[in-house]
Amino acid sequence: MAIEDDVCVIGGGLAGMTAALRAAREGARVRLLSHKKSTLRHASGLVDILGYADGELVADPFDMLSLLPKTHPYRRVGNDAVRAGLSLFDDVTGDAYRGTHTDANALVATHGGTVKPTARYPARVAPGLASRDRKTLLVGFDSLTAFDAPLAADHLAAAGVPGTTRGVTVAFPGDFRADSRVTRFARALDDDETVETASGSTPVRRALARTLESHLGNAERVGFPAVLGEEESQEVREALESSLGVDVFEVPMGPPSLLGLRLEALFQEALDEAGVRRTTGNPVTEFDASDGRIQSVSTDRNGRPTPFHADEFVLATGGLVGKGIDSDREEVIEPVFDCHVPHPDDRYEWFDDEAFGDHPFARFGVDVDDDLRPLDADGGAEYDNLRAAGGVLGGADFAAEKSGSGISLATGHAAGRAAGAAANQ
């Protein structure tokens, strides 16, 4: 029996989930295909719109969007789509995120001691905004080497953030394995496990507060790596604040990121509520097209293809990092539909001689029309019923601009809305 849907979204990251959710809210029957886990679990959980332009820090992203090149994804969809994407995000995340009160970027300290301009940030991060002039203590754990609190504090001081920042490394209370994952610490704090300390058996939250008492000094807030619970972060932070007498916040971490995992879970809950069917674990390996339209895509499981038919399709497979765009020594390709990816024939023109130069490859991706339909080499639509969103789009240097999440939300929203509307015609 054929699997039939109105809209099929390929890719389970932020852009794909946004497109699927928006299409479902148009009344379409939607299927989301993803062959691997979302990249959100590797991300910080911060949502950026535009952090830098021409190497300069951006205070208000919406002041700068109209100045970007016409080929930039933001220019393709327009400011209204950027705001609509943010609005969908705010609806999905509710009170779990902050930043809705202003268009201006907030400055968030990262685990590396850098300051990131961002538009939306988890509530558990909010008390630690780097722009606030407060005496800050950063706390690292000797068994969690990914966060060197003293080094991060030194970097923040060198960056000139307001207030003073100190860092200290302590032992996490209890007898945990040296190679314990961040989720192990989070679960212990969620459950307030009893641990053995020098003073006897003690709930781990109280033991952690006691460990820090001698280091607190005149600190007005304390920042921990983002491991303060998977499900009960607010409760954990309130318990620590009550014991320490100061505000407590979390510092976004690298993979595996509990903040990213929580964001992924919020979107998955919204997809389930909207009735989006999710099929995961197998890549799209082939497709069928006729008369300028895609008829179906097929996933592969142990050499056995499974076709998925739909009226409209959205490509949201990511960029170079996610392999939504791939390359060899001769060319750059889009591997699912073989969409045209503009790039110089001479591969030495793909990059800059300087390691931190303006590398052309960072902007490689499919070119699209104003309806986000990928264009062929002659400037015509590859397929009438295919749209692209997120990192697979060309024209933006996500890493340099700090724009990846915003582009995923804006173009995912626009592509999902267009696909859902077209499917209902």
UniProtKB/TrEMBL annotation:
Q: So what EC number does this one have?
A: 1.1.5.3
Domain of life (superkingdom): Archaea
Give a Gene Ontology cellular component term annotated to this protein. Answer: glycerol-3-phosphate dehydrogenase (FAD) complex
Can you give the residue ranges of the FAD-dependent oxidoreductase 2 FAD-binding domain? 6-407
Species for this entry: Halococcus dombrowskii
- What NCBIfam families does this protein map onto? glycerol3P_GlpB, PRK05329.1-5
Instruction: Extract one GO molecular function annotation from the record.
Output: glycerol-3-phosphate dehydrogenase (quinone) activity
Can you say what this protein is called?
Glycerol-3-phosphate dehydrogenase subunit GlpB
Stored InterPro entries: FAD-dep_OxRdtase_2_FAD-bd (IPR003953), FAD-oxidoreductase_2 (IPR050315), FAD/NAD-bd_sf (IPR036188), G3P_DH_GlpB_su (IPR009158)
- Per UniProt, which keywords does this protein have? Flavoprotein, FMN, Oxidoreductase
**Pfam families, A to Z:** FAD_binding_2
Encoding gene per record: glpB
Q: Does the entry feature the keyword Oxidoreductase, yes or no?
A: yes
